[in-house]
Every structure is written in structure tokens, then in C-alpha cells.
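Task card 7
Instruction: Convert sequence to C-alpha cells.
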Amino acid sequence: MEKVHVCSAADLSPGEARRVDTSPAIAVFNLAGEFYALADLCSHGNASMSEGYLEDDCTVECPVHTARFCLKTGKALTQPATVDLATFAVEVEDGEIYVRLPGAAA
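Output:
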């Protein structure tokens, strides 16, 4: 697994998201101090999930199509999306956020 630096945990406030330009692009979310990472591209169409609406029930809503996805599992919860989003492991080390991507060992 490849470990990719996102940002300092202090730079991603609760309720915010950040796009990470990896391949594939990742959206990292801070929900009440817990960090989650999903594929950034909505599975229904060309919309960035990092621009979506973060909800207290651990979901994110697509900013274009109103489809909702579970931050923990990536599961598509509402129409028009029917395909789940990939999730990625998030680690916080020494105050820095990292995401683990499939690929070469770090």
C-alpha cells in the first residue's frame, strides 16, 4: 500500500473536506474529529465528492445529483447513484493525515 500525505489534521476542520489529486482522486472528510476517505468522483456522474454536503449521520451528499454515500463503507445509499464508492484507510501520525492507497509498499 502506498501512503499519501493529505495535510495537517489542524488544517482540516470538522465539517470540512479536501480533495487529494492522486490516481484515483480521493476526498478526505473530517466528521467531528474522525477522518474518512472516499473516491472523489461520484459514481453517478462527473462531480467531486469533496464539494459535497457532509451530514452528521456519517454520509456525504453529491453536490450535483443529491445521491448520498456512507463515509465508512462507500455504499451508495440513495438514487440516482447505484454504484458504491471505494474507501481508503486514513491514518493520523504526529498530527498529519495520510491515506493508504493500493499500490507499491510505502
